[in-house]
Amino acid sequence: MSHKRKPRARSHATRANRAGAAPRRTSPGKTSSGFRRMPIRRRRRIRQVLAAVAGAVVLAGAITLAFFNHAATAGDRTTVQTWVLPRLGASGKASLAQFRGTPVVVNFFASWCAVCASELPVFTHDAAALRGKIDIVEVNALETGDGLAFAEQFHLAQAVAAVARDVGGSQGDGLYQALGGTGSMPMTAFYDAHGHLITTHLGGFDSTTLAGELRQLYGVIAPA
Fold first, then answer.
1. Where does the chain have alpha helices with state H?
2. What are residue 9's DSSP bridge partners?
3. CATH dotted code for 84-218
4. Bigger pLDDT: 56 or 212?
């Protein structure tokens, strides 16, 4: 008499358990990660790609931050006759309109500009000597470094009528461009007491040339 072998229930249960069971743990010295089983050269290549992606993300963030630092905010204007700029290192705005009734000299500077460093003491001297007759406004533009530290080095905030930061443009130079600037520094714009642009000057001033310009345009004499 033949006997039929009964199917083993255990095999079905085992398969079911294997299908639904959690992954087996590996010993500390082993891993089931596919990355570890890759060839060393391929792993290095993946790490290089990940590092490049991370670097690109950091660079994009820096560019975005720079863009927003240079971008114009609500209320800022960079038109020649009606400019309104944020103050550098302080709250509030500096505008051409607030100086109406007094001639205004707008001098652009940047921390990388060696000529700016030479002429700023001349502007601060004349700004103090001619206060009430002429208002001198210093504007930081085309900045790639620390414009505020540079301005503080020459005590601009204490000497001139206002220290502002240019905005807009391709590199925080909206007003500078509107006045005809093309990338060279320094540049100075001269306005009459009604806020009308008289002329612009590209290049630096010394005490003699600035005094001559002020005398010719405004009829004032800067003390030596």
1. 9-20, 40-70, 114-129, 147-153, 156-159, 174-178, 207-218
2. none
3. 3.40.30.10
4. 212
Looking at residue 196, its amino acid is: H
Number of H helices and number of E strands within the chain?
Answer: 7, 7
Helix (H) or strand (E) holding 163: strand 162-165
Measured CA to CA in angstroms, residue 155 lies from 56, 102, 169 at distances of 38, 22, 27
Its sign, for the CA torsion 204, 207, 208, 210, is positive
Distance from C-alpha of 182 to C-alpha of 19, rounded to nearest angstrom: 72
- Give pTM, 2 decimals: 0.69
Calculate ∠ Cα 73-144-163, nearest 5°: 55
Residue indicated by tokens 């709250």? 91
Tell me the pairing of strands 135-140 and 84-86: unpaired
Q: Encoding tokens for residue 71? A: 């971008």
Tokens matching residue 155: 């005590």
pLDDT at 61: 38
**Can you read off the two tokens belonging to residue 151?**
């301005």
Reading the block at residue 40, the tokens are 């060393």
In the structure encoding, which two tokens stand for residue 111, read together? 């921390």
Cβ contact 95:130 at 8 Å: no
Banded model confidence at residue 59, pLDDT cuts 50, 70, 90: very low
* Tens digits of residue pLDDT in 94-129: 999 999 999 999 999 999 999 999 999 999 999 999
Q: Find residue 201's DSSP bridge partners.
A: 188
Domain ranges of the chain: 33-70, 84-218
